[in-house]
């Protein structure tokens, strides 16, 4: 992840670059956007900076878009960067690359859908779409921990549904999937110790196996106590149960928000690529 979040827009149209730059800047002011009109300018940028996302057209004034992508994939800084091809005539002749890690083209975007569709796609992928509130499913029996955590969520404008017991949370998810056709929650946050017959590990396993929600469909943040001096964190159990990440109690606001935003980005990147 680059120290500063950067987006590279490659498009031969002055008007398109201007519109995209303005609309994305307005919605994601923390994003450093570089806009280039041709392949030469783009290669200068990709050799100098690391980008989170690169968008490019196919017909550039000085090169073919796919040739440019091949060159970008050879640069150390951006060999794994997400690259979106924007075209009215989708050419799928490049579906892979010599790189062992990534495909050459991350996603194709139909230009006919308009610039607003592209803007939303980019922002959703980056987790920067301010129009979409973060929605958390929170499961915790502790009154103290719940009070602290929900205060943090409320203060930062995070929507949440809180349940004390695992079966209630599972029933909510079943109804949510039935209503929306997929899980509408961004992240589940659960304590390891829950009231009733199910603890946190069993809840996560039920979500992964019974509801068939994988790591991308519903990322999970597990909260657990700090191990004592003579104890060790059970990493095998935590991640073996299907957890994306974990956080030790007591809750620290900056740590909680950072973990949540990372997991929300995972969910929304997956949604953007599969929409």
What does this structure look like?
The protein has 275 residues and is an alpha/beta fold. The protein has 2 domains: 121 residues, Response regulator (Rossmann fold), CATH 3.40.50.2300; 140 residues, Response regulator (Rossmann fold), CATH 3.40.50. The chain has a 5-stranded parallel beta sheet with strand order 2-1-3-4-5, sandwiched between helices. A 5-stranded parallel beta sheet has the order 7-6-8-9-10. Strand 6, helix 5 and strand 7 form a beta-alpha-beta unit. The protein starts with 5 loop residues before the first strand and ends with a helix.
Number of structurally distinct domains: 2
Question: Based on CA inertia axes, which overall geometry fits?
Answer: elongated
Overall radius of gyration = 21 Å
Strand order of the largest sheet: 2-1-3-4-5
- Poorly predicted ranges (pLDDT <50, ≥5 residues)? 91-102
Straight-line N-to-C gap: 24 Å
The CATH architecture term of the largest domain is 3-Layer(aba) Sandwich
CATH superfamily membership of the largest domain: Response regulator
CATH class of the largest domain: Alpha Beta
Mean pLDDT: 85
| CATH topology heading of the largest domain | Rossmann fold
Number of helices: 9
Number of strands: 10
Structural class: alpha/beta
Largest sheet: 5 strands, parallel
Helix content: 40-55%
SSE order in H/E notation? EHEHEHEEHEHEHEHEHEH
Strand content: 15-25%
């Amino acid at each position: 992840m680059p120290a500063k979040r950067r987006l590279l827009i490659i498009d031969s149209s002055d008007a398109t670059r201007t519109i995209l730059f303005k609309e994305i800047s307005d919605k994601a002011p923390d994003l450093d956007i570089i806009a280039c009109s041709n392949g030469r300018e783009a290669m200068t940028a990709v050799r100098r900076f690391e980008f989170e996302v690169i968008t490019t057209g196919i017909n550039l004034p000085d090169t073919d878009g796919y040739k440019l992508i091949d060159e970008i994939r050879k640069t150390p800084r951006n060999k794994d960067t997400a690259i979106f091809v924007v075209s009215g005539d989708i050419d799928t002749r490049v579906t892979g690359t010599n790189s062992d890690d990534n495909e050459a083209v991350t996603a194709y975007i139909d230009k006919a859908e308009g610039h607003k569709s592209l803007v939303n796609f980019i922002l959703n992928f980056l987790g920067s779409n301010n129009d979409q509130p973060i929605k958390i499913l929170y499961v915790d029996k502790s009154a103290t921990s719940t009070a602290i955590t929900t205060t943090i969520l409320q203060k930062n404008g995070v929507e949440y549904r809180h349940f004390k017991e695992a079966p209630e949370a599972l029933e909510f998810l079943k109804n949510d999937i039935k209503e929306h056709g997929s899980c509408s929650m961004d992240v589940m946050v659960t304590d390891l110790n829950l009231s009733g017959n199910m603890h946190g590990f069993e809840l996560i396993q039920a979500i992964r196996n019974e509801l068939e929600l994988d790591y991308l469909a519903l990322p999970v943040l597990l909260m657990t106590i700090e191990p004592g001096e003579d104890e060790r964190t059970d990493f095998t159990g935590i991640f073996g149960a299907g957890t994306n990440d974990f956080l030790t109690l007591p809750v620290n606001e900056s740590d909680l928000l950072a973990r949540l935003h990372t997991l929300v980005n995972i969910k929304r990147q997956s949604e953007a690529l599969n929409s």
